Structures are given as structure tokens and as C-alpha cells.
Amino acid sequence: GKNFIFLFRESDSELYFKNLSKQKQKEVMEKNGNNHKLRVCVATCNRADYSKLAPIMFGIKAEPQFFELDVVVLGSHLIDDYGNTYRMIEQDDFDIHTRLHTIVRGEDEAAMVESVGLALVKLPDVLNRLKPDIMIVHGDRFDALALATSAALMNIRILHIEGGEVSGTIDDSIRHAITKLAHYHVCCTRSAEQHLIAMCEDHDRILLAGCPSYDKLLSARNKDYMSIIRMWLGEDVKTRDYIVALQHPVTTDIKHSIKMFELTLDALISFKKRTLVLFPNVDAGSKEMVRVMRKKGIEHHPNFRAVKHVPFDQFIQLVAHAGCMIGNSSCGVREVGAFGTPVINLGTRQTGRETGENVLHVRDADTQDKILHALHLQFGKQYPCSKIYGDGNAVPRILKFLKSIDLKEPLQKKFCFPPVKDSISQDIDHILETQSALAVDLGGTNLRVAIVSMKGEIVKKYTQLNPKTYEDRLELILKMCIEAASEAVNVNCRILGVGISTGGRVNPREGIVLHSTKLIQEWSSVDLRTPISDALHLPVWVDNDGNCAALAERKFGHGKGIENFVTLITGTGIGGGIVHQHELIHGSSFCAAELGHIVVSLDGPECLCGSQGCIEAYASGIALQREAKKLHDEDLLLVEGMSMKKEEVVSAAHLIQAAKLGNTKADSILRTAGTALGLGVVNILHTMNPSLVILSGVLASHYVNAVKDVINQQALSSVKTVDVVVSNLADPALLGAASLVLDYTTRRIY
Q1: Confidence bin at 746 (pLDDT 50/70/90)
Q2: Phi, psi (5° rounding) for residue 49?
Q3: Are 614 and 599 spatial neighbours (Cβ–Cβ below 8 Å)?
Q4: Per-residue pLDDT, 133
Q5: For 23-69, what is each residue's pLDDT tens digit?
Q6: What pTM was computed for the model?
Q7: CA-to-CA distance for 670 and 673, rounded, in angstroms?
Q8: What contacts 367, CB < 8 A, 6 or more positions away?
Q9: Is 545 annotated as a binding residue?
Q10: Is 241 a catalytic residue?
């Protein structure tokens, strides 16, 4: 088996961090004052948060030229029943500046509230004496909420570790409350980062670093793990042949969590494997859980070892070599994944956490048999190691982030809300109104505005020819939007915002059209958000028409509930949108999903983009119109059953009609166009591997069979099962523009 050690000994830790590459942040030091070191206060409340904070503390201590470290210890660290875990901080050679006894015993809901209050009473004096530049707070415990509240009210900058994560119980609410108080954020996963952005936190103050504990988990070794296993579990125990159990009360449903703990112990007794059971944390309900342990005789049972605390470096080796870990500790779904140890996660306490394949969830155990069955499934397995929560380089990133903090920046934090001018007060009329969006579609020919309800119903629609100049176009957009907003009152609709679908490349974050297609003149570097938001006093979202079509399908069409799909618009041009893992892909320069410009032939016809052989040069309405004109000029278009007036303009519709009536040349052109589109779809399948392709637009029904044929002939066998369907949405551009508003205002991440 593999040998692991996952926490440095004191001397090794200091040596490691002293050897970290130094990032000399001279310009920031100059801003903060040439001789000013950043005074950092790290406050730790319990054994769990210290395992995450210790690596950062070692890193800070190793760079005295940049930092001064003050350590404050409070919470269950100082309680004998929970192991007096402050001693491990002293053993790591950290000077504890202040010890605060803040826990009110009782282990119930009232005691938790009183403990927060006691901490709030004691912390101001400590912070007044320390005067830190920044306080580092970890996680989601009630003690941490008291720390963040005190620091925020005393104008001390807060760096919050592990914000943005999702789990069960009251911890979620506390974690997100601390996020709103904190000035800077260090998160562990990409999803957590996106959650923080969705919570309107400033992206520039969010660092995706990974979990600090992983720096030690992934970088140290110890061959003497067997002595640790024997010390805690007995001389006769072998690796992968014992269980570690760690279960805490769920504060929002204490009665159920105690019942779950009883069932867990019954299952472990029946399973008859040596088990190390750790006492629960100090949360409300822990006293009742300890009573359950004693009632079942766990402390004296020959197969069990019940302990209050195991030092983290030893604990992590115990779980690394265990046959299984069971319980509801975050350690099970986070750190243990680094070793591939099987985990059984019980109940709702970690619901929403990202987990590796080593975790089996038992959400609601109504009998012990369910847990016992899970033990039989998991015990003794070895899963691939997971690095969801870190790559071993979190601390260097965090130290660099700390050095970049400019203390001369305003202390007041800012939230990144969508722009909105005057809020509308809530009254009964608003409650009775239908929540709706103003949707704007800027096409090459027409400019359309519609009132769209939450269910996707187009309540009212306005259409005008799209003006040729920027000034006229913007004036008409404002006029039509104002008219529609006024009419919304008469049709009992409450407008939540304005969504705009337009051709060209769009920066949706800023609401700016960066570059337009040739179909819309004078439409580059155009800020649409500001003038429309100013005029209507509503938030405004802007995106490319292809992306909007994909959003329409995701909310109202075939893409609803589909994780990965692609939408292709077949109209005047060819566009599209890509939805991956339920989210729209914009790309690094907002140029993703320009599907019409996939090249399918090196010497094909010239495209409007300037290239040759693009899908759009074969299969767009403009391309078909071009070929129809060629046939008409050679008198090869019209067949029996067709007629055209002299003033009538030749269009793609005439080519399609001719093909249906037996014109072989028109039919050949349509087949070539369908093949070009099909080849483009095959390229998309090989790149993105979606489960669904949606063809949208006026030409979709004419191409769908050709696309399916090309996939069957040209695609790899692993992607041939993809579904190709024609959109059933009557107006995807307007519905997509509306979904920009409706998804955001109903708190969907976008």
C-alpha cells in the first residue's frame, strides 16, 4: 500500500514554508508604507478550523519581513471535554496572544446563541489591543460569525476562508452571512467561486486557492503510520480493516440527527469491525449524542475506541488507511477524498458539498439495515484519489494575495449588483401582477420588442424596421421600450428588467456590443446597458442572439433540464449557443459558439466574415439567396408550378420551393448546404460531446434530416446517439432575451 503523512511535524512545516518562493510585492509595500508589515490576526475556534488555518499560519510566520502574526484562541479549543485542543497550537510553536473562554455549556440552541453573545462581549477589547490590519476567519461555525461581526463593526478587514460552499444545516446561513461581512474571500473550488460571484461579491477580491490543508496532505510522507493505528485502535489491527466514525448533530433537526446516530452505532455494532469513534462537536444536540454512546456502552465495547480528540496529523493518517469512514463530518467529503478512502456520508449536514466518487450518501436512514448495507458496499474498497478541493499550492497563493492588499483602498466593501436606478416599492398591485420581462431582438431587418411572461408567453409584441444608423436605432429602441413598459401596466405585467438579443460579439458583463455582423451597420463598441437602464430605471442584460436562442431552449424548450446541449440558428446567418453543465459558455473573449464560422471546406465560397468555406457561406439564408439568384440569372430557377412578379426579389424561399417541385439543381444546392451544416455539427459533437443538438430558425426543418445523415456517415460511433431535433419555440430570440432577465431575477446563476 501507499504510505502517507498529511501534516508536517513542527520543524518540517517551518522549513517547508521558509523554502517557499518569495514573491517580493514591493509596490504594495510602498503603497502601505515602506516599513509597514501587514498585521494579521488569525482566530481559531476548534480542532477542525485549525487544521485549515495552521498551514496559513506557518506560511505567515515564515515571512516576518512581510507579516506580523497574532493568534487568538477561543471556542471549544479551551474545553476539557473536547480535548483542550489549544495545546496542539502551542505544540506547533505558535504564541497564543489571547485565550477567550466563549462557550456557554448546555449544548443546545440557546447555549449556541449565548456563546455568540459572550464572544461579542469579549472580542472588542482584544481587537482594540491588537489593532490588526486584517483578520482571517474560517468557515461556518457560530464562533466564526461572532469574529466576523466584531471585526466588521470595528472596521477591520476580514479574509474569509472557504466561503461560497454549500452544505446542510444552519452552517450554510452562517457561512453566507460571514461572506457578506468579509472584504476578501479565499475559496476552494470553482463552484464556490461562482457562488460568491452570484452573491454579488467583487470578483477582484475572490481568490480560488484550494483548501490549505491539502498543501500538507499532498506533500509529506511518514512510514510509521502503523504505530499511530495501533496506538488508537489496538495492536492487532491491520490497515484497511477498521472504521473511523465522526458524526455531529444537525442543529436544524436535532431529534432526527440523534436518531440517525443511534442507527449508525447499531449498524457498526452489527458490522463487527474495530471502530474509532470521535465525540461530536460542541453544537446543540451533542450532549444527547454522547448519552446515546454511553447508553449503548460504546466506551467499553471491545470493538470500539471512543475518544474526544485525535491530533490532526494522526487523525488524517487514520482515515487515510481506514477501511471506511462514516459520519457527517466535512472531513469525510473533503480531505479524505485525497486518499481514495471509502466514505459513507450520513444525513443532510453535507448536502450540496462537492464530493469524489469515494463518497456514498445515505440521506435518510429509517432503519439500521440501510447503513449496514452501505458498510458492506464501501468497506475495504480503494477509490482513485480526488483533488476537487486543492492541488497542494493554496498557501503560496494566499500569501501572495495577502501581500497584494492595499490598505489605502477604501474599507467599505462594494457589491456587484446589476445596475438598477430606483426600486419600486412593494404593494398589493405588484403582487397581483404577472412577473415579466421586456425582450428586445435586434435583427438584420427588423427591430422587435415584446412583453414576455415568466411562463414564456409573449403578451404583446411590437415590430419596426431596423434603422441603418446608430442614433436612429438607439432612439427607436428607447421609444419602443418606453411604449412597451407603459403598456405593461395596462396588461397587468410587472417588468423585472430588459433583455436584449443582438447579432455580433457581445460582452454580457458590461452590456456592450463589441463587434457587429455586416447585417447590422454602425453597431460596434456600443454600450446598450447604460442608456436603456437610465431611461427605464430597470436592470438591462445584453447577449449575442445565438446565446439567447440557447437560453430560450434551456428555459422554455427542448433544452430544459438537459446538462449539455448545443443550439444552431439557421436563418439569415448561422449562429448558435453552447450550454455545458447547465451554464452558457461565453469564452475568454466572448467569442464562443460562433458556430456559423466553423470551416468545412478550404476552398468553399467566401463568407461575410472574410474567410472561405464557413458553414454560413453554404447554409445561411444569404448563401441560399445567392445561389437562387445565380440560377435565376441563368433562367434555371423557375419550374412548372412557380411564378414570380417582375419586382419580386429572389430569395432562399424560391430555391426551397423549386427543389420541392423537382428542380434538381436547386435540390443539389440544398443538399450541399445540409451536408455543410452536418459536417459542422459533427465537429461540434467531437469537440463538446453534447447529448442534444437543437436546430432553430426558419431553415431548421429543411436541414434536420441531412444533418442526421451526415452524423451517421461521418461521426465517431460514441457520438452518433446524439439527439437532433427542430426547435418547437415560435420566437427563440425574444424568449432568449427574456430569459436573460427572468433567470437572473429569480436567482438562477448566469
Answers
A1: low
A2: -70, -25
A3: yes
A4: 96
A5: 444 555 555 554 679 999 999 998 888 988 999 999 999 999 999 99
A6: 0.51
A7: 5
A8: 263
A9: yes
A10: no
Residue of 545, 603, 633, 743 marked active site: 545
* Distance separating alpha carbons of residues 210 and 228, to the nearest angstrom: 28
Strand stretches in 390-433, DSSP E:
none
What would the pLDDT profile of 210-256 be if each residue is shown by its tens digit?
A: 999 888 877 655 668 899 999 999 999 999 999 999 999 888 888 88
Residues paired with 507 in a beta bridge: 512
Contact 568, 696 (CB under 8 A): yes
CA–CA separation, 90 and 523 (whole Å):
65
* Chain-centre distance for alpha carbon 394: 19
Strand partners, 599: 614
For 329-343, what is each residue's pLDDT tens digit? Answer: 888 888 888 888 999
Question: How confident is the model over 483-514, as pLDDT tens digits?
Answer: 999 998 888 888 999 999 998 889 999 999 99
**pLDDT band (50, 70, 90) for residue 315:** confident
Task: Identify the H or E element spanning 458.
Answer: strand 458-465
Q: Say whether 483 counts as a known binding-site residue.
A: no
Residue 609 labelled as part of a binding site? yes
Would you report the helix, strand and coil content of the chain in percent, each value rounded to 5?
40, 20, 40
Report the C-alpha gap between 434 and 572 in whole angstroms: 34
- Supply the pLDDT for residue 35: 61
* Residue 517 marked in a binding site: yes
Confirm if 305 and 232 have CB atoms less than 8 A apart: yes
**How far apart are the C-alpha atoms of 395 and 67, rounded to whole Å?**
14
Structure confidence by residue, pLDDT tens digits, 148-163: 999 999 999 999 999 9
Give yes or no for residue 4 having a pLDDT over 50: no
For residues 535 and 481, the answer to whether their CB atoms sit within 8 Å is: yes
Is 172 annotated for ligand binding? Answer: no
Per the rule left: phi > 0, alpha: psi between -120 and 50, beta: everything else, 180 is alpha
Nearest partner of 346 among 365, 331, 322, judged by Cα: 365
Distance CA 338, CA 18 (A): 25
Q: Is 291 annotated as ligand-binding?
A: no
The number of helices, as runs of H, and strands, as runs of E, in the chain is 26, 26
Q: Is 385 one of the annotated binding-site residues?
A: no
Instruction: Please state, in angstroms and rounded to a whole number, the distance separating the CA atoms of residues 245 and 232.
Output: 13
* Locus of grid cell 404583446: 460
Residue 325 has pLDDT above 90, yes or no: yes
- Amino acid at residue number 309: H
Reply yes or no on whether the pLDDT at 360 is more than 70.
yes
Residue 130 grid coordinates: 491588537
Burial of 125 (0-12, 13-18, 19+ CB in 10 A): exposed
Gap between the Cα atoms of 124 and 483, Å rounded: 56
> Can you say whether residue 83 is alpha, beta or left, with left for phi > 0 and alpha for psi between -120 and 50 degrees?
left
d(CA 738, CA 451): 8
Around Cβ 599, how many Cβ atoms within 10 Å? 16
